[in-house]
Amino acid sequence: MGTAVMEHQTEQAPAEHDRWDFLLRAWHEVDMPDGWRAEIREVGIVLVPPPAPRHNSNIYKIERQLIPRLPDDWELHQGTGVAIPSSLRLRAPDLVVVPDASIPEERGAPLSADDIPLVVEIASKGNADDDRGAKKHDYAAAGIPLYLLVDAYDPRGPRITLHSAPRGTDYADSHAVEWGEPIELPEPFELKLDTGGFLIPTD
Question: Which of 6, 11, 134, 169 has the least CB density, counted as fewest CB within 10 Å?
């Protein structure tokens, strides 16, 4: 799954304290093709194309196991923007758990990372390095307690990694299992996630 970087043209560069508002306005103005997502990364606004079917299959298998463990007032969202103002970043995770009370009223507004307990990314060949590096640091900087990475392209072999205990711009703890092995999700989920049916992406 590839990406496209967009340059937002402006007559005057914003002042440092206005930069986040400037980036967020530019993100809102992006005219995306159906199924695409936009993120704010270090290089600017990046368009991410729709995922491959096997990618979506793995997301569904995770959702199906998470739903019975969620409180009634929590939801699962796919590809919804998560704002990280402290890092001047906005990410659109493959899957995010969010309380109802944190859903913004404004159409198209991103979620705040403050109350998000878990984000999930399914690595694609073209963005696996970003999932392992920059995204991990962004989610840690946002204070998101759990980051689950399903990575069929790990150089050590396909595996699933749970990053936990955010400290600054990284996670203090990481636990990985080989593809197909169960992985424990701690409180508030207390779930042994079955990855035996996960499909290796072909993108």
Answer: 11
